[in-house]
Design goal:
This protein has helices spanning 7-16, 25-28, 40-50, 69-76, 108-115, 129-137, 144-156, 161-181, 186-190, 202-220; strands at residues 33-36, 59-62, 81-84, 95-101, 119-123. By secondary structure, the chain is α/β, with parallel strands linked by helices. It folds into 2 domains: 7-125, Rossmann fold; 140-219, no CATH class. It has a 5-stranded mixed β-sheet, sandwiched between helices. Strand 1 (33-36), helix 3 and strand 2 (59-62) form a beta-alpha-beta unit. Helix 3 (40-50) packs parallel to helix 4 (69-76). It is elongated. It starts with 6 loop residues before the first helix and ends in an 8-residue tail after the last helix. 15% of the residues are buried.
Amino acid sequence: MVYDVSHETCKQLNQDFPAIKSADLESTSTRDIVFIALHPPVIMETLGRIKKLINRETIFISLAPKITISNIVEVLDNRHIVRFMPNATSIINKGYNPACFGSGFKEKQEILDLFSIFGKTVETEESKLEAYAIISGMLPTYFWFQWYDLIEIAGQIGLSGLESKEAMEQTLHAAIEVMFKSGLTMDEVLDLIPVKPLGENESQISKMYGSKLIGFYTKIKPIYEPII
């Protein structure tokens, strides 16, 4: 059962997954397990709207950064709180997803079993969730657009779409193994390819990673005190 302010979103969900039924906010808030998947600025307002509908036994799962378990408890007076951050690769059941459970949470195995369909769930401290969001949750978006650019370039220099995709897939898998499983140091890995076409741009790219990602982390970093 799903509620969304966008009628079109609910309609599309139902077309893609006929078992999903759209309903109003009140109906969805009275279920045994409730997920909230909203941007942080509207979370607290929404919690205020549903606090009388969420009972103390409801398992409440937040997919949002920044809003802490203590923030949620302050409104809902509920101790069955989970924060979970599935990443994009969960769409093929291969996510690497951090989770944090509220103090005294008793149904942990039940929820871990539920999450298992998304891929690997990593239980972690709440203070690390947003760091995981930067390093794991958003990781693909740092590279996907570049890989699509490379497929386009491959076509311009003579490879078919199938040839370029196979070459990139095989090489990317192997490159990851070299970095994480070969036992080579960082310098040894970086020295494996002496010709570096983007070498003069590497320091600029590194600076962009540092400024953009740390800046974004600062924006989503939790406030560890009640904000209502």
